[in-house]
Design brief:
Helices cover 75% and strands 0% of the residues. With 85 residues, it is mainly alpha-helical.
């Protein structure tokens, strides 16, 4: 059965790391609502994760990067919409 991530294990790991970072980023943004006293730290951490995602995407092929664009844009929007800290 062909792997949806490509042929090499390291390639699969690169894709999975992007997916994991996106999940972490959204989780941090979600925590802002339940932990308002930690808003500044959570948003800062989400920003770092967002930058990590962008860096990791540079290691992927163009077609793979494009498939992540909508969810990366949604993470950016979610971070931008967090209440001011």
């Amino acid at each position: 059965m062909p792997c949806r991530y490509g042929t090499s294990p390291d390639h699969r790991v690169r894709v999975e790391l992007v997916e994991a970072d996106l999940e972490i980023g959204f989780s941090l943004v979600d925590l802002v609502e339940s932990c308002p006293s930690q808003t500044a730290r959570l948003v800062s951490d989400a920003e770092e994760i967002y930058q990590d995602v962008l860096a990791r995407l540079q290691r992927l092929e163009d077609s793979e990067r494009q498939s992540f664009e909508p969810i990366v844009a949604e993470l950016r929007r979610a971070i931008d919409l967090t209440p001011p800290h």
